[in-house]
Amino acid sequence: MASPENFKRNPDVSWRTIEGQSVLVFNREGEIQVLNEVGTYVWEHMGEPIEIMARGIASEYDVSEEEALKDVEAFLEELKGSGAILPAEE
Amino acid sequence: MDTPLSLLLNRAMGKAHPVYASMELTYTCNLACRFCYNPVQRKNQPRTIPPPAPSGEPLRFEEIIRLLDDLREMGVLYLTLTGGEPILHPDFWAIAYAAKERSFALRVFTNGASLTERTVERLAHLAPNCLEMSLHGATPGTAEALTQTKGSFERQIRALEWLRARDLRVFLKVVVTRLVEHELETIKAIGSRFGYPVFYDPVLTPSDDGQEYPLELKPSDEAIQRLYSASGLNIGNSPFEREPGQYHCGVGSGTIAVDPYGNIYPCVQWKEPVGNVRHGSLREMWEHAPLLEQVRAVSRALPTQLMTSVRDQAYCFHCPGLARLQTGDPSKPYTQALRVARIRREVAEKEIPLNGIETVSAAAHSD
Q1: Does B332 contact A at CB distance below 8 Å?
Q2: B287 touching A, CB under 8 A?
Q3: Is the pLDDT of residue B150 over 60?
């Protein structure tokens, strides 16, 4: 199972949270991604165990912990695919 | 076109959240471009008053790092390192890496003539968001007439070869003057040869201390027409330039500028000091400085004012900083912007059929 604690943010991706949404700038590719609120939560808490993150999301947004777990996993796959995150040991 | 990013940034600017910062690291430069607005250390310029003295000691490395921390804390995303030639700052690399570690999207302005193969290798390792490099001509004769520096063109072309080989993201920029206007298309071809887009800026600015020598190089109407014709060239100071008619350029609400001595300004074109980072907190200045309040009020009022005061407002880039420098009033239309707007409108009227009518006489709309 993919978990945020196994990943770190790619240092070549610059970012800031602006008005509650994280903006990711992929410096080498020149692309930009704007995350929604839940995506921003995941991004800002990257490195935490997935259970804690899911609990945090469930308490802040109107979703169950199970749903949050699934969403986080799917989102991590997306972030991995885009190169926004790297394996933590790298 | 509205994108999620542009909507977000507009919302942020509406709440005075600074997104863009520009740091002039040094005024030292290896070139002496005749159009340069920086009055310090320029040679051979026809000045009527002596250049201003530096306003104190340059910021020390630790002060720059504190400034980076403050800018990060305030939420700035895009950080431009500029100058002079920023790479000539003795601590450039340490500053650039510190900025990267703080997750700024780094834009580095360079004239390219200062780059060596080793520097380009280091830039590739740094991986800034982009390099914005000036080109001054398509031939050594033209380029060096502007840079007043022998060998500058050859060094720039060599730099482009190294940058391409290292796959760095580069935007080429051309300040359009009468000296280079006959080579605009050839410069575009140079850009294409290296796979880099070229942006052309037809607006010359007086020097920061109000001297008008750069304006003596203004391009012809015909050159500006070529820029804006349908088959023309990319226009704009950089890929970050706004669309015409968008007067909310972010001055005072989305942008902030710092000079090598720690003076804070609303923008690099609006060089009225808000304060100095040595004498107060940057956040405090940003949130409470009376000057910034005034700048925001000017910026908010501009769209309505220009609707009535500028006839070709749909084609007009009005820079409040330049307006202030040239007329003393940031809201007042200034000659250069009006001239470019008029030419743009004439080109558009010739090229865009209106209700089946092929052309509209420019004379019918003359100012």
Answers
A1: no
A2: no
A3: yes
Q: Is B267 on the interface with A (CB under 8 A)?
A: no
Domain count, chain A: 1
Chain A residues 42-71 within an 8 A CB cutoff of chain B:
none
The rounded percent of chain B whose pLDDT value lies above 70 is 90
Q: How far is A60 from chain B (nearest CA, A)?
A: 22
Residue B366 scores a pLDDT above 70: no
Contact B281, B270 (CB under 8 A): no
pLDDT tens digits, one per residue of B220-241:
999 999 988 867 776 665 555 5
**Cα distances (angstroms) measured from residue B202 to each of B27, B108, B227, B234, B343:** 23, 21, 8, 11, 11
What is the domain extent for residue A51?
A: 4-83
d(CA B189, CA B168): 19
Question: Quick check: is A25 in a domain?
Answer: yes
What residues of B are in contact with residue A21 (Cβ under 8 Å)?
Answer: 8
Residue A74 in domain: yes
Chain A residue closest in CA terms to B107? A27
> In chain B, which residues have their Cβ closer than 8 Å to the Cβ of A12?
127
| Best residue in B103, B104, B170 for a mutation probing chain A (most A CBs within 10 Å) | B103
Task: ipTM value, please give it.
Answer: 0.93
Task: Flag if A18 and B8 touch (Cβ within 8 Å).
Answer: yes
B245 pLDDT above the threshold of 60? no
Least Cα distance to B295 among B327, B259, B255, B261 occurs for: B255
The region of weakest confidence among A68-77, B41-50, B112-121, B242-251 is: B242-251
pLDDT in tens, B153-170: 999 999 999 999 999 999
Other Cβ atoms less than 10 A from the Cβ of B42: the count is: 21
Helix (H) or strand (E) holding A56: helix A50-60
For residue B249 the two structure tokens come to 């350029």
Cross-chain Cβ contact A16/B103 below 8 Å: yes
Mean pLDDT estimate for chain B: 88
Position B356 pLDDT exceeds 70: no
Which of B5, B75, B104 is facing A14, going by the closest CB pair? B104
Q: Is B195 on the interface with A (CB under 8 A)?
A: no
Please indicate, yes or no, if residue A88 is contained in any of the structural domains.
Answer: no
Task: Tell me which amino acid residue B273 is.
Answer: P
Domain assignment present for A90:
no
- pTM to 2 decimals? 0.91
